[in-house]
């Protein structure tokens, strides 16, 4: 775990005496933003006003520079928008975050410390926090509300310029201040700070940026409207894995990604990596590499005796805390934005114990500035180990596995995610409330087998589409033996094809997926996810899969 030392910086008492004026060597001025690109200044706030959404094409730099010791500070007025703000040796083009040598990276309730485009320290923010970057005797120090959160030794003695790279359309930099040697004068367009006839003042117009009382780290806000799971197949090296390559090609479309990178080992104190863990193709297209997409890997406990180990852990307070500590250490040491927990095949009787575990793990991860989500089944009534009400009250997201109504090993082929089932699930979620916490998972795969026999075939949706001309309707659900009494769930659009080799194959195309996405949108869900990235359907159009999802759940 990366240790971040926290030091309390005690400010001197206010003193407006002549002696203070004599020993003052610098003045703190409002930043004079210049070279504005797709941005404007209004009421002491720099704002992105043009360019493209989710694009690094807006920003500005300060006219003033730090030639020695001094600081640059600004107030967090909004926590969601994605932007980099900091100090640079050599200002780059508008929106060029990589050109900012010492920066705060702000997005979704976070204000992490970055150096030359690489993460250095975690930090959460709320509206009103004051972030400051200071150079003191050659050391760069990062502060939040006068608390030191990170420092970089033996840093540059070159001139430093404040620079902002504004990416989201709602990006802002509020009330920016910078210390500069007296008697620097603001641009003529600025209102005069003193009477021109007065002698130059070495007293700062604002001796320090406005500060607020430090607050405890809040629960991270990490809304994501479109995400997906991905898992290396093992048939090729991770850098050539089709799912990883698809993610890299469409990384800007995703708000978050959940690579299947960890699973339970011989006990709940052991977390083991899965093939593909740490692949740079994923890392460099997420927040780890300075991009906007959140990196929230999955930790799985679904195979062999893993569910039994989780079951035992739930009823042992010491074992629970030890397991939670391992999860927190993993998220912090790997610089993940959070963790997605996939703990399945637990008995219904574990419901209350599992909910207690959820409360404890959420509190621990939130305290470290990390998010937590769970993969849960698509329920239509209160049943199973997942208590929607209890879980949605404490976690950031519930990723609903809206698939496998018919799956591998089912007694017969049929629709993977019948529309009526998804509609019944949505009605139940609406009865619980907190619908924004629910992310509907789509199936990006096919299921097939001999008619009336156990299913034994699966492929990506695209591979199934390429089997040949397919039907889009089925009467199967009218007589499906998997339905309980009283359940009358329609299939909706149900692409399917009968083949000699794979049997009767059911899958989803873009239009059948859109039916389910529309249900989630109308029910007020927080977004869409799917299993798994890679091999997405390519028809019927006119929108491709990614465009279709974003048409219903646009980027924030």
Q: How would you characterize this protein structure?
A:
It is a single chain. The protein is an alpha+beta fold and 556 residues long. The protein folds into 2 domains: 21-181, SPRY domain (Jelly Rolls), CATH 2.60.120.920; 227-444 and 510-552, Glycosidases (TIM Barrel), CATH 3.20.20. The chain is built from 11 helices and 29 strands. Helix 10 (510-523) runs parallel beside helix 11 (545-552). The longest helix has 17 residues, at 317-333. The protein is globular and about 80 Å long.
CATH architecture of the largest domain: Alpha-Beta Barrel
Mean pLDDT: 87
Radius of gyration: 27 Å
Proportion of residues in helical segments: 10-25%
Summary, kept brief:
The protein has 556 residues and is α+β, with helices and mostly antiparallel strands.
Descriptive key words:
556 residues, TIM Barrel, Jelly Rolls, globular, nine-stranded antiparallel beta sheet, disordered N terminus, 28% strand, 2 domains, alpha+beta, 19% helix
Topology:
Layout lengths: L6 E2 L9 H6 L2 E5 L2 E5 L1 E4 L2 E4 L9 E9 L3 E6 L7 E6 L13 E6 L2 E6 L2 E4 L8 E7 L2 E6 L2 E6 L7 E7 L5 E10 L45 E4 L11 H8 L6 E9 L6 E3 L6 H4 L10 E2 L2 E4 L4 H9 L2 H17 L4 E6 L7 H17 L3 E7 L10 H5 L4 E5 L17 H14 L5 E6 L3 E3 L11 H5 L30 E4 L3 E4 L3 H14 L3 E5 L13 H8 L4
Helix pairs in contact: 5-6, 8-10, 10-11
């Amino acid at each position: 775990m990366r240790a971040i030392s926290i030091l309390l910086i005690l400010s001197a008492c206010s003193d407006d005496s002549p002696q203070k004026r004599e020993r003052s060597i610098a003045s703190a001025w409002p930043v004079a933003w210049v070279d504005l690109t797709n941005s404007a200044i209004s009421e002491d706030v720099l704002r992105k006003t043009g360019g493209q959404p989710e694009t690094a094409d807006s920003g500005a730099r300060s006219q003033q520079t730090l030639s020695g010791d001094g600081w640059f500070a600004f107030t967090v007025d909004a926590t969601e928008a994605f932007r980099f703000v900091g100090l640079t040796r050599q200002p780059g083009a508008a929106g060029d975050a990589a050109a900012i040598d010492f920066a705060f990276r702000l997005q979704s309730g976070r204000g992490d410390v970055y150096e030359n485009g690489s993460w250095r320290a975690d930090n959460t923010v709320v509206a009103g926090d004051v972030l400051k970057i200071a150079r003191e005797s050659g050391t760069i120090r990062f502060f939040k509300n006068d608390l030191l959160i990170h420092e970089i030794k033996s840093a540059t003695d070159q001139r430093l310029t404040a620079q902002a790279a504004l990416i989201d359309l709602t990006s802002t930099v509020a009330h920016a201040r910078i210390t500069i040697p007296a008697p620097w004068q603001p641009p003529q367009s600025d209102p005069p700070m003193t009477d021109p006839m007065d002698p130059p003042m070495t007293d700062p117009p604002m001796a320090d940026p406005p500060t607020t009382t430090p607050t405890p780290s809040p629960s991270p806000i990490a809304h994501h409207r479109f995400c997906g799971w991905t898992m290396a197949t093992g048939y090729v090296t991770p850098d050539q894995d089709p799912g990883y390559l698809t993610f890299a090609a469409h990384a800007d479309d995703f708000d978050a990604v959940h690579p299947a990178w960890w699973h339970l080992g011989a006990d709940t104190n052991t977390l083991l990596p899965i093939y593909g863990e740490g692949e740079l193709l994923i890392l460099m297209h997420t927040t780890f590499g300075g991009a906007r997409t959140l990196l929230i890997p999955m930790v799985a406990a679904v195979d062999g005796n893993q569910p039994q180990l989780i079951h035992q852990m739930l009823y042992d307070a010491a074992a629970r805390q030890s397991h939670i500590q391992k999860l927190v250490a993993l998220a912090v040491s790997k610089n993940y934005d959070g963790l997605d927990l996939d703990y399945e095949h637990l008995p219904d009787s574990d419901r209350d114990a599992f909910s207690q575990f959820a409360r404890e793990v959420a509190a621990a991860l939130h305290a470290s500035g990390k998010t937590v989500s769970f993969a849960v089944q698509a329920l239509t009534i209160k049943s199973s180990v997942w208590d929607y009400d209890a879980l949605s009250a404490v976690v950031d997201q519930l990723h609903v596995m809206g698939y496998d109504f018919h799956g591998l090993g089912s007694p017969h082929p049929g629709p993977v995610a019948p529309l009526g089932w998804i509609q019944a699930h949505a009605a139940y979620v609406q009865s619980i409330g907190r619908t924004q916490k629910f992310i509907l998972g789509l199936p990006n795969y096919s299921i097939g087998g001999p008619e009336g026999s156990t299913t034994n075939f699966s492929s990506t949706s695209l591979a199934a589409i390429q089997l040949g001309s397919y039907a889009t309707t089925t009467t199967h659900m009218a007589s499906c033996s998997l339905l309980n009494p009283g359940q009358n769930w329609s299939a909706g659009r149900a692409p399917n094809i009968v083949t000699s080799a794979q049997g009767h194959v059911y899958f989803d195309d873009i239009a059948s997926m859109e039916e389910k996405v529309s249900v989630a949108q109308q029910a007020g869900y927080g977004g869409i996810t799917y299993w798994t990235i890679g091999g997405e359907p390519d028809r019927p159009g006119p929108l491709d899969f990614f465009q279709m999802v974003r048409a219903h759940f646009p980027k924030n």
